[in-house]
Each structure stands twice: as structure tokens, then as C-alpha cells.
Write a structure and sequence with these properties.
Shape: extended
Radius of gyration: 30 Å
CATH topology of the largest domain: Immunoglobulin-like
Largest sheet: 4 strands, antiparallel
Number of strands: 16
Number of helices: 2
Number of domains: 2
Distance between the termini: 99 Å
Mean pLDDT: 79
Helix content: 10-25%
CATH superfamily of the largest domain: Immunoglobulins
């Protein structure tokens, strides 16, 4: 009898411990919360708006766990999810507030419910909702033509002596709500180390239907054994309204990230010289090269580089 009583008592203690433990876990609360939200229009196009949502996360306790924000935009009329974005915030220091920005794209018509959900160590700990309307009253950027350059491809088409003909495929996407106009595009290749312009050419975008992507192609001729940044600039009248760029590496010596600043190496300026036959009646034909002032500038730069190397022994 005593043995049975002891077993029942022990079982009761274990059960109470489990229940208590569960209750304690259920009532554990995170010390981080959403303190405030700012919403601004980052880009206003003719058809849509990019909303920048900055959430301020406040930590009222010790160093937090890994925080994450889920941002959702719902159409007020239909209730449908329009766009969403997730960003990892990381740990928040004791008694600190940390901002985190996210971007969602919405149409210019209608209103939206912006919902921000805060997670800590993958547990949902807080949520904030805001409603916005009147987006259609925002004035679109007059220089936003709706065209984007999401990608550029390059192909070696010909090699003649020290010159290489590069075929450039330019991807153009119309994100606007109407068919685009026919714009002019300047494509140019600039040597990475010295910044010398190797070649440039003009092409036309043509008329592009809304929500479609087309490919426009052109050729540039550049000296071999150098690395280049190829830029594409879309012009509207006298204004650059969109740009894109890619990298062409013809030098196998090393890999050069697109935006990394590099140490200048020996540049054979003669590779970039404009042939005399390129000039006719004071006008220059479309050939790789540079004008006389640029050549004089490069000569001065070359002297300075040689002097610096001499001073450094």
C-alpha cells in the first residue's frame, strides 16, 4: 500500500512538473517589439509605386535572438496579397532600437493594407498593420519611361590582330502600363584600370509593348587583353533616364569584380589610339579611340605614374 502511494505521489509530482513547465514556456514573452513604422514612396512610376517600409524594432531586455521581418502588402478591396518581402535583422543589442527597411511594389490605383510581422528565433512575437490610400495622387517621375535594363550578354564575334569585336545583347523590359516610345541608347566600353573609353555606338530601343522584354543588339570593337565595363544609357531628349552595365574581361590574369577598385597596371595607350584615317573633314568615323585632349591627358597621367614608380624605387 505504501509502495502504491509512493508511486502515485511521484507520478503526481512529475505530472505537475510537466504542466508547470508547459505553462512557463507558454507565458515566456519576447523582449523585442515593433516600436514604429515609416512608409515612403521610393519610386513613383506611371503604373506602380515602390514603397519603402522602415520598421523600428525595440529591444527592452538583454541581447535578443535572431530577428526577422516579414512584410506583406494586401489590396484593400480584394484582400489579395500583392507583394511580400522578408529581411533578416539579426540580433539586437540590450536596450537598443534597430531599424530595418524593406521595399514592396504596388499599383498606383487603390489602397493597401501593409502588414509587418516580427519573428525572433523563428517564433512570431509581434505584428503591426497600417492602411494606406491615395497612392494614385502621387506624381510620377517625369523621367521614368517604364523601361529597365535587367541584363546584358556579351559574345566574341571576331578577332583581328589586337582588336576584338564584341556583340552586346541588351535586354529591355517595359514595366510601364503603356507601350513605350522609341528611345536612343548609347552603348560604350570603358577600360577598367585607366578608365579609357574604347568604343561607343548608338542603337534604338524600338517600340516595346507593356510587360514584355525584347533584346536589342550592337557591336563594339575594343583592344584585346584588357577588362571593360560596358554601359548602356537610355536617353530621352537630352536626359539620361535609365542605365545598366555589365563586365567584359579579356585579360585572363585575374578576376575583377564589377564595383571593386583595382590597382592600375601597365596600359599600352597605343592600343586605344584613334587611327588618322578615322578623321574626315574634321569629323571622326565610328572607330575605337580617343580625341587629342584625351591623349594629352593620358600622356600626363603616364608621366605621373612613371614618376611615382621611380620615387618608390
Amino acid at each position: 500500500m505504501i509502495r502504491k502511494t509512493g508511486i502515485l505521489l511521484l507520478s503526481g509530482i512529475l505530472l505537475l512538473s510537466v504542466i508547470s513547465g508547459g505553462c512557463i514556456r507558454d507565458f515566456e514573452r519576447s523582449e523585442i517589439r515593433i516600436a514604429d513604422i515609416d512608409i515612403s514612396a521610393e519610386r513613383v512610376a506611371s503604373a506602380n509605386v515602390l514603397l519603402n517600409v522602415t520598421t523600428y524594432i525595440e529591444n527592452r531586455g538583454d541581447r535578443s535572438g535572431d530577428a526577422r521581418l516579414l512584410l506583406k502588402a494586401f489590396d484593400l478591396e480584394s484582400g489579395l496579397l500583392v507583394d511580400q518581402e522578408t529581411v533578416t535583422v539579426g540580433s539586437i543589442l540590450k536596450r537598443k532600437t534597430k531599424p530595418a527597411s524593406q521595399v514592396v511594389k504596388v499599383d498606383r490605383d487603390g489602397g493597401y493594407r501593409i502588414e509587418v510581422v516580427l519573428f525572433e528565433d523563428e517564433q512570431r512575437v509581434d505584428q503591426r498593420t497600417m492602411r494606406i490610400s491615395g497612392i494614385g495622387d502621387l506624381t510620377p517621375n517625369i523621367y521614368d519611361i517604364g523601361l529597365r535594363i535587367p541584363k546584358m550578354d556579351f559574345l566574341v564575334k571576331n578577332v583581328t590582330g589586337s582588336k576584338v569585336t564584341i556583340g552586346v545583347d541588351l535586354y529591355l523590359t517595359n514595366e510601364g502600363d503603356i507601350t513605350s516610345e522609341d528611345f536612343q541608347v548609347l552603348i560604350k566600353a570603358r577600360e577598367m584600370d585607366a578608365g579609357l573609353l574604347a568604343d561607343k555606338t548608338w542603337i534604338s530601343t524600338g517600340i516595346i509593348k507593356k510587360e514584355t522584354t525584347v533584346i536589342r543588339s550592337a557591336d563594339i570593337v575594343v583592344p584585346d587583353d584588357y577588362n571593360y565595363i560596358v554601359e548602356a544609357l537610355i536617353w530621352k531628349n537630352d536626359t539620361i533616364v535609365e542605365r545598366g552595365q555589365g563586365v567584359v574581361q579579356l585579360s585572363p590574369v585575374r578576376y575583377i569584380p564589377e564595383k571593386e577598385k583595382v590597382i592600375s597596371e601597365d596600359i599600352d595607350v597605343e592600343d586605344f589610339r584613334v587611327p588618322e584615317e578615322a578623321y574626315e573633314s574634321g569629323a571622326m568615323k565610328k572607330t575605337p579611340g580617343f580625341t587629342a585632349p584625351v591623349m594629352m591627358l593620358m600622356l600626363i597621367l603616364t608621366i605621373l605614374i612613371m614618376k611615382r614608380r621611380y620615387n618608390n624605387g
